[in-house]
Description:
Organism (chain B): Streptomyces violascens
Largest interface: A-B, 52 and 67 residues
Pfam family, one (chain B): ABC_tran
CATH class of the domain at 2-74 and 146-216 in chain B: Alpha Beta
Bound molecules: adenosine-5'-diphosphate, magnesium ion
Number of helices of chain B: 10
Family (chain B): Belongs to the ABC transporter superfamily.
Oligomer: heterodimer
Region (Disordered) (chain B): 298-332
Order of helices and strands of chain B: EEEHEEHHHEHEHEEHEHEEHEH
InterPro entries (chain B): AAA+_ATPase, ABC_transporter-like_ATP-bd, P-loop_NTPase
Amino acid sequence: MSTPYQQQPHPQQAPGGPLGTYTSPIAVRRATFGDALASEWTKIRSVRSTMWTLGVLIVLLLGLGLLTGIVVRSSDAHMGDNSVLLLGFYGVLLGTICVITLGVLTIASEYGTGMIRTTLTACPSRGRILAAKSVVFFLLAFVIVTAMTTLVAAIQSALLPDARTPSGGEWLRATVGVGLYIAMLGLLSLAVGALIRHSAGSITIMIGVVLLPLVLALFMFTPSLEGVRNFLLEYSIPSQLSAFYGESISGSGPAGWDPLWIITGITAVALGGAFLSLNSRDV
Amino acid sequence: MIELEGLTKRYGSKVAVDHLSFQVKPGVVTGFLGPNGAGKSTTMRMLLDLDNPTSGTVRIDGRHYRELAEPLKYIGALLDAKAMHGGRTAYNNLLCLAESNRIPAARVSEVLDTVGLSAVAKKKAKGFSLGMGQRLGIASALLGDPEILMFDEPVNGLDPEGIHWIRNLMKQLAGEGRTIFVSSHLMSEMALTADHLIVIGQGRLLADTSMADFIRQNSRSFVRLRSPQWERLLDVLNQNSVPFLQTGDGAIEIDNGRIEALGELAARHQLVLHELSGQQASLEEAFMQMTAGSVEYHAHGATTPGGPPPPPDRGAGRQAPNWGAHDQGRGV
Ligand SMILES: Nc1ncnc2c1ncn2[C@@H]1O[C@H](COP(=O)(O)OP(=O)(O)O)[C@@H](O)[C@H]1O
Ligand SMILES: [Mg+2]
């Protein structure tokens, strides 16, 4: 520390020397939304939580699907009016937890680790980041759920040849419809993750959103609450999901493709809110 | 060139950054100095458009940060926090950043090599030591080979070898004609690396000066005398009209005094001296004086907020004349 203050003149400070003339040899090519997609794809495939949530999702869908098929087959239970597709419902219902978790983690884990600052420094457009995350997550969840529900439905059809053969429309709703619905539910979780910025909190909220209406409805015995109770039963997420199997827990409420439009509307609003929040709040 | 104009940030009632205006000029290392909590990190976050200013503006080469489509090619930043995903490998952490800015993937290996992390490229970032984390952060800053580089307290938590490496890296980067904006709470660190100095305290600009000027103005040299014949010494100095200062610990200081002349003067009057020494005030002290009124966190009884302890031979109560009344305590 005796002579720490002697300046070593830098070459560019020489009189007449050019200032700030550094130019990178790397060519500047305009980054597009496609580059943001590639970046988000790298992110989602390079963390273990993705492998875990999707792995458990696949195990649940396949495992519960096979199990229900085998149980029904060996017990000689009568499927009644229902198609075999309904047997896929239980796996999907439990699988929502995995999709919710992955949806939340896609954005909230960046807040947990501090990565979000690096991400937004590299790509300051909040809209672009949110859109890229949404597209990558949605496609991934949709492809996996649709592929697995299709596979499970095919296996169950083979296991239970005597059950009623589902129509093409029923097939489409129980596979692509369910895939779209679950992926949209995951996207809603992503939006909630962006709003809450905390993984555990967001996951808890989303599981509450899925389960609470049903649980609340179960405790509403008083006749004066009849209307609320019916609404909760009809519009709870498990009920909406069951509509894709031509079945509804309450016997009324949204049917056909209605649940998809409902959740799409809610998700659109939540994503809009997430965008406004990302755009205006400090990181 | 980075330009700040009236940049202000409030968190509730707390003013973290208070009407800061300065420019970071190209081609030199600009040091951004201030005690802990002065608002350095907040300013840097506003530069990167991570935090929204309460008022004021920041321009990078005349543009707002959000207008940059591939910002990594203009400006690279190392923020103080570990800003990577621990579950991802070093390589993948950098790859996703490179992809978002259309930087070729080959560049990832290049920067990992530059910072010496090639061997752990495929290891998860969460297993990294503080120093390795800093190196990874620097690698991400270098990814786009940008003209402007910003480092927030880059030497924090590094071992001496790492500190040495970062200093040399910054010099090398500046030597290539880049703009370097580096923050620190240590004057000694700035004195080693910076050409230009911006000092803030409690969010306010305290100095915006070239390092050379700062050193010239603040490195006071003086001669220190100590004598058992104190009264006589003062008389002799007064008779010869030598201006002097009395320190709290019984020593006498003579600004810009010539040590030989003072020795001969003492001999002529047959004065016993216990000390006759040339001294140089440290820049660290100048910095502490400058920010004394604006130190955010300080331990009671300590005289050095964040800085190294003063050398033992320095009197506790000494103050340079231009800094106020002599016998007053330091006010820390
Ligand atoms: N997100 C925040 N919320 C509230 N106060 C904050 C926040 N970030 C920083 N501050 C406060 O602003 C001041 C400046 O902090 P900071 O910029 O981190 O200082 P430095 O980097 O110079 O040590 C501190 O008093 C700090 O407590
Ligand atoms: Mg800081």
